[in-house]
Design brief:
single chain; 163 residues; mainly beta; 8-stranded antiparallel beta barrel; 57% strand
């Protein structure tokens, strides 16, 4: 659901570099299913997926994470106006629940899409922190947007940055 950290933590606000504030940055891969599939016309869609991350940051115990993503909203190949929850399990056995609202999309070359996802950790580890998960969504056949079935699966590199 997201590209690798394009410029890394250097692009984060100065407050994110404050040693008193934990920072965890993770890179990995995600697969997201849409039901019904994304088409050129907005329609109510269920969103479900999973992600796997390798992490670094000020918490030396956090090395990796896995997550489950669920949500719904009005979606199309051109916009995703949805709410989603990501349930993260860290390698330490701790959990985090992230809430994402309104996921703006930017069209990229070749029919691919970049999502700009921001939210808040609402439960568990890092509760109250901001979370960003910008990324590149790879569609194997972007022409499926013009079909009734639509694009049912996007996958590719992903990041998760908690400040």
């Amino acid at each position: 659901m997201v590209s690798a950290l394009v410029a890394g933590p250097a692009v984060l606000p100065a407050s994110a570099h404050d040693a008193s504030r934990p920072l965890t940055a993770c890179a990995g891969s995600a697969g997201i299913r849409f039901s019904p599939g994304l088409s050129l016309w907005p329609r109510h869609t269920r969103i479900a997926g999973s992600a796997h991350y390798t992490c670094t940051g000020t918490d030396p115990g956090v090395k990796w994470a896995e997550s489950v993503i669920k949500g719904s909203g009005e979606t199309s190949c051109l916009s995703i106006a949805s709410t989603a929850v990501e349930l993260v399990t860290w390698n330490t056995g701790e959990h985090s629940k992230m809430l994402y609202r309104q996921q703006p999309l930017v069209q990229a070359a070749g029919g691919q899409v970049v999502s700009l996802v921001d939210g808040t950790v609402i439960e568990g580890k890092y509760k109250g922190r901001s979370v960003s998960s910008p990324g590149l969504q790879i569609t194997l056949d972007p022409l499926d947007c013009a079909t009734k079935k639509g694009v049912e699966l996007v996958d590719g590199p992903t990041t998760l940055v908690i400040v």
